[in-house]
Amino acid sequence: MTGSPTARAALAVLSAALLAGCARAGAGETGHEVVARKPAALPHGYIEGAEELAEPHPRLVISDGGTGTAHLLDLVSGELTAVGAAGGAGVIGGVGGDGRFAYLSALNGTTARVIYGGTWTVDHGDHSHYYRAEARDVGALTGGRPQRVLGDAGVTVVSFSDGTAKVLDRSALEKGDLVETARIRTGGHGSVVPYGEHLLVASAGGMEVRAQDGGLVSRVGASCPEPLGATVTRRGAVFGCADGALLVTVKSGEFTGEKIRYPGKPPKGDRALEFHHRPGSATLAARAGSTGIWVLDVAVRKWRLLRTGPALAVAATGDGSPVLSLTADGVLHAYDAASGDETATAELLAAPLPAGGAAPAIETDRSRAYVSDPTGKAVHEIDYNDDLRRARTFELGFPPAAMVETGR
């Protein structure tokens, strides 16, 4: 700025006067002073840095069984992009996801790679909000072999084969940081499930309720001998036990347990080890060893054993919808969950699986199932409500090892 000090001072006074005038109505039209307007209220469901969508925008996070690279398959556009390494060459397995993040790992590895899928759903009970943001590789968790991932709005819990579970701060995860808030030891086996703003810890010593920082709060008055798989449904948290399932619910801050016993006493090899179901559904499916498929209807507290023979992968698609089973001959089967009757089949996989290769996976949402095809280097999209019609096939160019759906 040039000119004398007096001129500069006069200009400053004039500028201040002009700025003050902007706070008055009509910029001098009426001369009446008005109250400054409040900022517009943020829209319901607003999340900073995310784009809100009118409908779900599902994506699949898939690891390359040869190189370990993690890829993102956009199920709306069909676009496939690389987002990060899943743990190095030879990755042939996976862990799971919490609806927003995928956790990928080698079957015999000790690292879980955390991939942010970039799309997610916020369920408010009577309605939902859908969001999209940029996908990215968040980082890696080390420990034993990762086995299970479960999350809620506050925390995500990653359970490892060495009997430990790491509790991660969910808000930090959403900012791209891996912040461990607690570490819980369950012994040789066990499960830790975030539920009701607490952590449910099933171990050989019984069922505990802990705060999200790991501190003991109370105990659930029901046992779960030899705890195995675990999941969360709208009707409560479900734990697989040697004698059936334990359903844990909460009301007015009090946690209670209810046992859903197996019909009879199945051999140890036929127990339900892991539950597979569409998020939000109360119908669960689990492999029953070489015998077939367990179907657990949490709503009516009842197990049903479908004697289908061994399956590579199973999934329940929802209450009143088919239970899916993929067999070693590459055929996808649909069964009525109530009667056990087979309702449809579809020849799906390109060829029998090679020994030691990655097993196929099934991911389900409200209208479609996605089946990975390691030999065919593809993912098949299936309309399970239309006699297993193959809606699309996505050619990947690599063998899919792990596959996790986000955004649903």
From TrEMBL:
This is ABC transporter. It comes from the Bacteria. Residues 1-25 form the signal peptide. InterPro entries: Quino_amine_DH_bsu (IPR011044). Keywords: Signal. It comes from Microtetraspora malaysiensis.
